[in-house]
Amino acid sequence: MSLNQSISLIRYGEMHEEKYKAQLLDFALPPEQAEFTGLPEQTLQDACGDPGKTGVVIAQGERAVGFFVLHTGEGIADFFQDYAGAVLLRAFLLDYASQGKGFAKAAMALLPDFVRMHYPEAQQIVLAVNERNIAAGQLYARAGFQDNGLRRSGSKGPQLILQYELSSGPVTPLAHG
């Protein structure tokens, strides 16, 4: 079984909420990583309470190993002014106990088709990464995100705005949330 087959992306909420909530709330990060992202205990309620945001669980089988938020609409204008047709990837993290196993790479490989399926109008995925967060920047670059020179000031310092253009190619049917 390839790593991509053992990892799935599942929209958080409705029938999946209780299944993963306790696992997500148990996530931990070392301080040098927690500086750059919010743990699910901080991001879940916001994602569930905002119709422009969708929480996404990175699961290995029945176990939550990571989490992120997809955000659309005018609420992303602070990150990306040309927000029509863009989906913002926010708060991407893997539980510390699940790091170093290729799960982040596998999740990033699944992300474009997941976005195409759930946001068919999307033309691109954008994200902001702190320029000091070298490991995350490298992950995103390897996943195909481009640095086109866009920057913004974040609460923890300068951020790179990275973009992933979604081709209009066929969507691979996903059996995930």
Report what the structure shows:
- The protein is an alpha+beta fold and 177 residues long.
- Helix content is 29%, strand content 32%.
- The chain has six helices and seven strands, in the order αβαααβββαβαββ.
- The chain has helices spanning 3-6, 17-25, 31-34, 40-49, 103-118, 134-142, and strands at residues 7-11, 53-60, 63-71, 86-94, 124-130, 146-154, 157-165.
- The chain has a seven-stranded mixed beta sheet, sandwiched between helices.
- A hairpin with a 2-residue loop joins strand 2 and strand 3 (63-71).
What is the secondary structure topology, with strand pairs?
Elements: H1 3-6, E1 7-11, H2 17-25, H3 31-34, H4 40-49, E2 53-60, E3 63-71, E4 86-94, H5 103-118, E5 124-130, H6 134-142, E6 146-154, E7 157-165
Give the end-to-end Cα distance, rounded to a whole number of Å. 20 Å
Give the integer mean of the pLDDT values: 88
Low-confidence stretches: 170-177
- Tell me how many strands there are: 7
Helix content: 25-40%
Radius of gyration: 15 Å
Largest sheet: 7 strands, mixed
Strand percentage lies at: 25-35%
Described by the principal axes of the CA atoms, the overall outline is globular
Strand order of the largest sheet: 1-2-3-4-5-7-6
Sheet/helix structural class:
alpha+beta
- SSE ordering: HEHHHEEEHEHEE
Count of alpha and pi helical runs: 6
